[in-house]
């Protein structure tokens, strides 16, 4: 029973929100939902209303055993479940012979469709059955996949979102067996046929047909097994979804159509229409020089002509012209490219929308119980309403306006019926009914639907009036007519704060669930929902049997303008209200725990919105306005009789006297309860909790009775003390809060004064009057700096600091540059790093020392200047296995006579090799290398100094290289002689042989000249490239 679960309420919450101690707190409401959700308890009551949270995973609570557990059991004797609501409605229908209805609501993805399936499954399994009844049960169940295929689609919020409202009547005979059914559909989202938002899909049936249809079927329909080929299926850029298996769903739908009673001809005609919609979407237009549209895709017209049985030329003309009747004459007016595309889309929507209505009627015909001995007038009915919940999107249009109007009506009905059921129960039990204050949203319903002055009437008037009617003129008419209404606001009528969040093409309605901005763009077109006359005529010529029923020829002769979409919806909604008012309602409120469809994730912000939109707190407040708990005397006395010596173990008198004795013994105060004719009414949940807690203590032993009484007394005393203390603390705390508010105001005023005074004295030296302002200026600079830091090491921009922060700004700039350099170094590749390391060595050796160094900086060092074929194979053979690190062509000057000879300088692992064609002329070990001398001018001459004691060496080597910076950097790295390179001014001395020296003189000139001078020295003249 529900009472038995109260002992674990701290862990799993309460099963009925009515028993929340703080029933006015939204925080307590959501926390109770969270506790139960984490324990996989997705169902909770608000009185007789069931709140269901979508778990996004399979729970083992829908088995046949669970169905049997709830079958025929009192509503509160088992834990909350959709089966309990289903069974309670069924038993009420059987015993009271009054029609029932179950209203399921919630936003997309909350689980409404699944809830309605569970209700149907419960009746299919638990109700009595015969062969005929079993057929009806099967058809009731199989109608779901068919309606889902044609009326559901993948949206951003839900992979199987119902894009229409559905009300289904299930008819039962006198035995309680389901014998028939009837479905009403509301406001199919036809615009989805021609357009889908990014990440959304068209209706499931299109993808199921393409993915699951047999090859012969697709060939006959002229379709390809690729959804990307069809314009109506690519706009959402989401042809496949991981959670949807279109191929398997196709098999389910085909089987369901057979079970429902569709013949092969019916199915073929239906699929012809679905394929024709896809082909219509692929009809493309071109534009003539005159601006008139013409069709560029004749192949699509051929398919359309064959599929819907209309002559191709008639179709072509209907898709590019419109018929105008003026003064009794019929004129064909050509359409431009944009108008023709709109006409094509309008035809697609009309075909699909009317076909869906035909499909629902066909299902209704199959569900009708055809037995002469059974009269449908004598049938008992359970209605099942699966309809869209309150919707608030970033951009709300005509569809959201209709949906939210529907929810306003349902909320009005919901509150009225809830109050009525409460009042009826009070009157039946002889309890005085206390009027309940609640938000009556009749004022909003009247704003929308009132005759002549309501929004729908104004919209219809704009649609029907001659002249240049547009969405903007509709908005202006609204401002003129209902501009003074307290629940209506536009950009023009709003205050400055509201205008910032409203567009000029929007109006705002203050719904029961919150404010919603509606964009009027498209309102008139969607409300008119018109189809050109010649398109209707073409469809009336169709040989497709379904289309001939969808497009009646009487439409062509009927001079009366068809009702607008809003008026049709308003009328059907009024009929729905009449249906629901005639039935005993049960409610299921579905909640989506998160937008990511993840199991176990509880998004408190999202759930708070839904609690508000579903009006759950208002419902709880109405339910708690009187008595929170009520039970029949026999049930109450049977459970709690052990708590009173006079009623334990058995009470022999009247039940009402026994309960009266028991509650008096338990210490109930007169204001906490009332005794009716057959039930006890308890006002506060804490009273029931105290009773349940006392019973839990009593269970252990009767010997604890005195202890329990003493605890009850002490707790009451403690409660009174706490209450008195709480009053004192509250008064004290309110005083503190008031003083804090006053202090904050004073501080705010003082801050403003200091800021103004600082601004006045801002040019003076720092003083008490301007220090606050100057600190703010520094803070502003630092915040500006944080938003405008340089993006890379080459970006030298830096905000100009105030004078007081110049030094700090410079430090920050340097730190910022160091950080960017560090980040840059982390991202460079190994090859580039090696290049930079060589450049660093070259910089260390030559920067500001040698004239031609700057010209070498932008040129990358290469791994070698000689390819394999440039080096004689005999030289390679002589080098053996020693790996060559670098090779460059050089010019060697003889020690005697300084004759220039071409040579190759090869850098190995341990030595430098000077080679002449096929011969190794000299090997210089790095260990014998004393140093290298080079001039400061732009020439490429350098001297390799070697140890004279080495008999292998003939003396120092004079070489010249066109890449002297690169060559010497490579030699310095390979020989590890970075610090042994000497850059000389004027002349270089070198050893010619044993004890002999030579001299190289360097002078500046206009061009490079290397020659032997008259004094016997080697003379090098080089141009100066830059001044150091």
UniProtKB/TrEMBL annotation:
It is found in: Cell projection, Ruffle membrane; Cell projection, Stereocilium membrane; Cytoplasm, Cell cortex; Cytoplasmic vesicle. This is Unconventional myosin-Ic. The keyword rRNA processing does not apply. Residues 13-696 form the Myosin motor domain. The keyword Membrane applies. GO terms for biological process: actin filament organization; actin filament-based movement; endocytosis; system development. It comes from the Eukaryota. SMART domains: IQ (SM00015), MYSc (SM00242). ATP binds at residues 106-113. PROSITE patterns: IQ (PS50096), MYOSIN_MOTOR (PS51456), TH1 (PS51757). InterPro entries: IQ_motif_EF-hand-BS, Kinesin_motor_dom_sf, Myosin_head_motor_dom-like, Myosin_TH1, MYSc_Myo1, P-loop_NTPase. The gene is myo1cb. Residues 850-1024 form the TH1 domain. Pfam families: IQ, Myosin_head, Myosin_TH1. Residues 573-595 are annotated as: Actin-binding. Its main location: membrane. GO terms for cellular component: cell cortex; cytoplasmic vesicle; microvillus; myosin complex; ruffle membrane; stereocilium membrane. Belongs to the TRAFAC class myosin-kinesin ATPase superfamily. Myosin family.
């Amino acid at each position: 029973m529900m009472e038995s679960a109260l002992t674990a309420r701290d862990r799993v919450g309460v099963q009925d929100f009515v028993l929340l101690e703080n029933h006015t707190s939204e925080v307590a409401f959501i926390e109770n939902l969270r506790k139960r959700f984490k324990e996989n308890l997705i169902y909770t009551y608000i009185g007789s209303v069931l709140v269901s949270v979508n778990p996004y995973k399979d729970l083992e609570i829908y088995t046949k055993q669970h169905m049997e557990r709830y079958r025929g059991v009192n509503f509160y004797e088992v834990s909350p479940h959709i089966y309990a609501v289903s069974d309670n409605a069924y038993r009420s229908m059987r015993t009271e012979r009054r029609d029932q209805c179950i209203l399921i609501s919630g936003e997309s993805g909350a689980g409404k469709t699944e809830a309605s399936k569970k209700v149907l499954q419960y009746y299919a399994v638990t109700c009595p059955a015969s062969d005929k009844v079993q057929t009806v049960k099967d058809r009731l169940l199989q109608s779901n996949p068919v309606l889902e295929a044609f009326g559901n689609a993948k949206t951003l919020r839900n992979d199987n979102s119902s894009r229409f409202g559905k009300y289904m009547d299930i008819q039962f005979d006198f035995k309680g067996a389901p014998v028939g059914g009837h479905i009403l559909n509301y406001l199919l989202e036809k615009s989805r046929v021609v357009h889908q938002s990014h990440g959304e899909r068209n209706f499931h049936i299109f993808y199921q047909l393409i993915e699951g249809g047999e090859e012969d079927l697709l060939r006959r329909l002229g379709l390809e097994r690729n959804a990307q080929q069809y314009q109506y299926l690519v706009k959402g850029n989401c042809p496949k979804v991981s959670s949807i298996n279109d191929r398997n769903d196709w098999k389910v739908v085909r089987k369901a159509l057979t079970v429902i009673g569709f013949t092969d001809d019916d199915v073929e005609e239906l699929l012809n229409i679905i394929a024709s919609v896809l082909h219509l979407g692929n009809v493309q237009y071109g534009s003539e020089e005159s601006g008139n549209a013409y069709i560029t895709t004749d192949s699509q017209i051929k398919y359309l002509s064959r599929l819907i049985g209309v002559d191709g030329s008639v179709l072509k003309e209907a898709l590019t012209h419109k018929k105008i009747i003026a003064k009794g004459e019929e004129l064909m007016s050509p359409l431009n490219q944009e108008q023709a595309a709109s006409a094509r889309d309008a035809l697609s929507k009309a075909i699909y929308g009317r076909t869906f209505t035909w499909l629902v009627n066909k299902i209704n015909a199959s569900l009708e119980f055809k037995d002469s001995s059974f009269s449908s007038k004598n049938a008992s009915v359970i209605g099942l309403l699966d309809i869209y919940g309150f919707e608030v999107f970033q951009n709300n249009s005509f569809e959201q306006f209709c949906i939210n109007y529907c929810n306003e009506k349902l909320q009005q009905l919901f509150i009225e019926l809830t109050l009525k059921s409460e009042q009826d129960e009070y009157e039946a039990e002889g309890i005085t009914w206390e009027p309940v204050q609640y938000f009556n949203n009749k004022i909003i319903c009247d704003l929308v639907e009132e005759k002549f002055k309501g929004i729908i009437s104004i919209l219809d008037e704009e649609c029907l009036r001659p002249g240049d009617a547009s969405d903007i003129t509709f908005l202006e008419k609204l401002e003129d007519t209902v501009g003074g209404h307290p629940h209506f606001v536009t950009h023009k009528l709003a205050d400055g704060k509201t205008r910032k969040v409203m567009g000029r093409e929007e109006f705002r309605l203050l719904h029961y669930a919150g404010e919603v901005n509606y964009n009027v763009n498209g309102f008139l077109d969607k409300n008119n929902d018109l189809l050109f006359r010649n398109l209707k005529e073409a469809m009336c010529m169709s040989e497709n049997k379904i289309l001939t029923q969808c497009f009646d020829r009487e439409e062509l002769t009927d001079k009366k303008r068809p009702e607008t979409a809003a008026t049709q919806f308003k009328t059907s909604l009024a009929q729905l209200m009449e249906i629901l008012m005639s039935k005993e309602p049960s409610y299921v409120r579905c909640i989506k725990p998160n937008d990511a469809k993840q199991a176990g994730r509880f998004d408190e912000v999202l759930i708070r919105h839904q609690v508000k939109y579903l009006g759950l707190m208002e419902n709880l407040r109405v339910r708690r306005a009187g008595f929170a708990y009520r039970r029949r005397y026999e049930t109450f006395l049977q459970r709690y009789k052990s708590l009173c010596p006079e009623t334990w173990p058995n009470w022999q008198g009247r039940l009402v006297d026994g309960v009266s004795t028991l509650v008096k013994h338990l210490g109930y105060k007169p204001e906490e309860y009332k005794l009716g004719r057959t039930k006890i009414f308890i006002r506060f949940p804490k009273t029931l909790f105290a009773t349940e807690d006392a019973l839990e203590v009593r269970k252990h032993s009767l010997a604890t009775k005195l202890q329990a009484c003493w605890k009850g007394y002490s707790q009451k005393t403690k409660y009174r003390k706490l209450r008195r203390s709480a009053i004192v603390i509250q008064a004290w705390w309110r005083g503190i809060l008031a003083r804090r508010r006053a202090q904050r105001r004073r501080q705010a005023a003082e801050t403003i004064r200091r800021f103004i005074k600082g601004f006045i004295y801002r040019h003076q030296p720092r003083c008490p009057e301007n220090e606050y302002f100057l600190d703010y200026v520094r803070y502003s600079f630092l915040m500006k700096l944080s938003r405008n830091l340089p993006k890379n090491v080459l970006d030298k921009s830096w905000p100009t600091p105030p004078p007081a922060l110049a030094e700090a700004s410079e430090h920050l700039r340097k730190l910022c540059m160091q950080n960017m350099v560090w980040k840059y170094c982390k991202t460079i590749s190994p090859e580039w790093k090696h290049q930079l390391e060589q450049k660093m060595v070259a910089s260390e050796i030559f920067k500001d020392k040698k004239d031609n160094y700057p010209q070498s900086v932008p040129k990358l060092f290469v791994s070698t200047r000689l390819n394999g074929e440039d080096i004689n194979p005999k030289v390679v053979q002589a080098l053996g296995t020693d790996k060559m690190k670098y090779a460059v062509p050089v010019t060697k000057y003889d020690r005697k006579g300084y004759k220039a000879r071409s040579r190759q300088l090869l850098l190995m692992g341990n030595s430098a090799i000077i080679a002449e064609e096929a011969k190794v002329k000299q090997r210089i070990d790095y260990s014998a290398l004393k140093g290298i001398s080079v001039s400061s001018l732009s020439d490429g001459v350098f001297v390799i100094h070697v140890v004279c004691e080495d008999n292998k060496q003939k003396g120092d080597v004079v070489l010249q290289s066109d890449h002297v910076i690169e060559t010497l950097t490579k030699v310095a790295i390979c020989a590890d002689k970075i610090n042994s390179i000497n850059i000389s001014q004027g002349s270089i001395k070198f050893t010619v042989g044993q004890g002999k020296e030579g001299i190289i003189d360097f002078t500046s000139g206009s061009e490079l000249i290397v020659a032997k001078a008259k004094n016997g020295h080697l003379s090098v003249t080089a141009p100066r490239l830059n001044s150091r």
